[in-house]
Design brief:
twelve-stranded mixed sheet; five-stranded parallel sheet
């Protein structure tokens, strides 16, 4: 039975391998410290945080998130450790709330590996505090217990760490916040909806319908996988935010039955105990229970249901893979510990006793790994079957360029809720691709990296080929943005100082969808940046003053995109500052930035451009594992949405866009 703790109350822990789950109303940082019997933390090496997420017997999340799962193995912590403290803090320097009083009370639960809650604690009474010691696991007379703490600190993480008697607490806090900022820069933004549960397909749901969030199928079933809903900030020229249902804390699900039909209402997971094993069900016909259905998530429209369903698949795969990796790590550490015990006993080093012990340890290891892989394969089979029916049903904004939906393309009358920027996959599930969907209007600019790729793709060594491919990728993104907005609601500007991108930009130039020919030379750079920064200033003043009708006659109120090729060539200090201004202030008033650049070549400007790179979402023209999910922080391999070789779909789509713009006199 779960013990619901209040501040200061303790409860015994029945097992050594545990999981600590944290849910909050906004992205927070989760850390943990190890201390000795006197409560002293020996140094920064005893602190687990996003920059150093793993310590013996302890692993924390690698980035800020609204939900965390901390893995704890009390048998594996050093003998000198007598206390494990869980710390929560609001990140600084990335936007968002600055005090816990402005967000929902954090909820912390200690669970076993079967998902059953041992103890839970809701941290109430916080106001100006921006960091808090949530709870602690402590050793008493050879047994471990958990105690609810709830001690908050208005001075933030630095004050909290100083209170833990850590030397150079401020330096460590700064390092943690820097690691969080880097994680935010590389993370795929979570959707605004707080409920991504799978419901039986069908009618759109009302605002009172909730659901259960995806959970991990192996080592971590039963926790809330939903990112709590965050208020949507209206942006100038964009559509109003969609209402989203709210989600509560789900009960712990059990594994699905080993036999019988698959329940696709939520792949591989149920919120109630499984029924007794039944004989295998006959194959179901399409539309019957047991078959995956496109659009079986919650939402007000089919588009929103498909969007939520894709994000549900994304989260399912992230958590399933995390559970598999955690199980393999446990199997490795267990075998290593057992082998160390064998080698530490001189009697087992000779004769057949040692060999038998080693074989037994290896057999246990293989059994645990096989069990974890079987569970992962089960989930992958279910997600693959779901992907096979979802992918063909996606609208143009969500679809790949090779999807037949583009052959029936017509310029839309309304802006979609999201856009596909590519595909994501993990090495354990290489054939399965998850669409990378981001909300519209864009909340972050895009950076198409033309620098040398990572180790995943060595096919491109020539810098000229990389730059050409990077600009091709930027053109494909721009074409998709033009295609999904109504005629005249999206305008594209291009800066190409040296004129080196003429060939790659030809589809945009020849079809006539650009607002003006690509700007070249220093004068062209100055003119375009001056117009866009002036536009941002005008709209900001109009919005803040509540006088949007005072904008000049004929003012273009549509979304604006600036493509900058081959940065920093042709840019002086003033132009660089204008770019930073557009990256920071532009998205809120409908001006977006897409840079095609090699960061190494821009290093001559020193740290001046670091905030610019961090504010942009980095995409690559070749497959590379540089993006992180917002739940677990896996390194996902990103694949750009390039047009198939020889296909004319991009030119056909842009031709229709240009014709629609002319008909609307835009």
């Amino acid at each position: 039975m779960t013990a619901e703790l209040v501040r200061g109350q303790n409860h015994p822990l029945p097992q050594s391998r545990l999981e600590i789950r944290v849910s909050a109303g906004a992205p927070i940082v989760a850390c943990a410290t190890l201390s000795d019997e006197n409560g002293k933390v020996q140094g920064s090496q005893w602190v687990a945080h996003p920059g150093t997420p793993t310590l013996p017997g302890l692993e924390v999340s690698r980035q800020a998130a609204a939900d965390h799962r901390l893995a704890v193995d009390l048998d594996a912590v050093p003998e000198a450790v007598h206390r494990v403290s869980v710390l929560l803090a609001l990140p600084t320097g990335v936007g968002g709330p600055v005090r816990f009083g402005a967000v929902a009370a954090p909820f912390v639960a200690v669970t076993g590996l079967d998902g059953s809650e041992v103890a839970s604690y809701t941290i109430t009474g916080l106001d100006a505090e921006s960091a808090v010691v949530a709870l602690e696991l402590y050793r008493r007379q050879g047994a471990w217990k958990v105690r609810a703490i709830g001690q908050g600190y208005a001075g933030g993480l630095a004050e909290l760490l100083a209170d833990q008697n850590l030397p150079e607490a401020a330096v460590l806090a700064t390092g943690i916040n820097d690691a969080v900022a880097q994680g935010v820069a590389r993370s795929v933004q979570a959707p605004l909806q707080g409920d991504r549960s799978r419901q039986p397909a069908a009618p759109a749901v009302g605002p009172d319908q909730g659901g259960t969030a995806p959970t991990s199928p192996y080592a971590t079933p039963g926790g809330s996988g939903a990112v709590p809903p965050t208020p949507a900030t209206p942006s100038y020229g964009g559509q109003p935010p969609q209402p989203a249902p709210t989600a509560g804390y789900p009960s712990a699900p059990a594994d699905p039955p080993a036999t019988g039909g698959i329940n696709y209402s939520h792949p591989g997971r149920q919120s109630t105990a499984p029924p007794p094993p039944a004989p295998p069900a006959p194959p179901a016909r399409p539309g019957q229970p047991g078959q995956p259905v496109a659009g079986d998530a919650t939402g007000w429209s089919m588009e929103e249901r498909l969007y939520n369903q894709v994000w549900g698949m994304f989260e399912d795969l992230a958590r399933s893979t995390a559970a598999y990796r955690s199980a393999v790590d446990f199997a490795d550490s267990r075998m290593e510990k057992e082998l160390d015990q064998v080698l530490s006993d001189p009697r087992s080093r000779i004769g057949g006793q040692g060999d038998a012990a080693r074989e037994a340890a290896q057999a246990k290891h293989a059994q645990l790994v096989d069990q974890a892989r079987a569970t992962l394969d089960r989930d992958l089979a279910q997600l693959t079957a779901e992907s096979d029916v979802v992918e063909p049903a996606l609208p143009a904004a969500f679809a790949r360029w090779d999807n037949p939906v583009w052959h029936a393309y017509r310029v839309p009358m309304e802006t979609p809720m999201a856009l596909r920027l590519g595909d994501l996959h993990l090495p354990e599930s290489d054939p399965l691709r998850i669409p990378m969907l981001v909300r519209l209007p864009l909340e972050r600019g895009l950076w198409i990296d033309s620098g040398a790729p990572g180790s995943l793709d060595d096919a491109f060594h020539d810098s000229h080929d990389l730059r050409r491919l990077a600009l091709d990728t930027a053109v494909a993104h721009a074409a998709r943005l033009l295609a999904v907005y109504p005629a005249g609601d999206f305008t594209v500007h291009v800066i190409d100082p040296a004129g080196s991108g003429a060939q790659a930009l030809a589809p945009l130039v020849q079809t006539g969808v650009l607002a003006a020919p690509p700007a070249v030379g220093a004068a062209g750079v100055t003119e375009v940046l001056g117009k866009l920064t002036q536009r941002v200033d005008l709209v900001q003043m109009a919005v803040r003053g509540g006088a949007s009708e005072s904008l000049p006659p004929g003012f273009d109120t549509g979304e604006q995109l600036l493509i900058v090729n081959d940065f920093p060539h042709g840019f002086d200090d003033r132009a660089v500052n204008q770019l930073r201004y557009l990256a920071d202030e532009g998205p809120s008033v409908g001006v977006h930035l897409m840079m095609v650049a090699d960061r190494e070549e821009a290093s001559a400007y020193g740290p001046l451009l670091d905030p610019l790179w961090r504010s942009l979402l980095r995409l690559t023209p070749v497959a590379e594992d540089h993006l992180a999910d917002p739940w677990v922080g896996h390194a996902w391999t990103y694949e750009p949405p390039l047009v198939p070789p020889g296909s004319q779909v991009l030119q056909q789509v842009l031709t229709q866009v240009a014709a629609a713009r002319r008909s609307w006199n835009r």
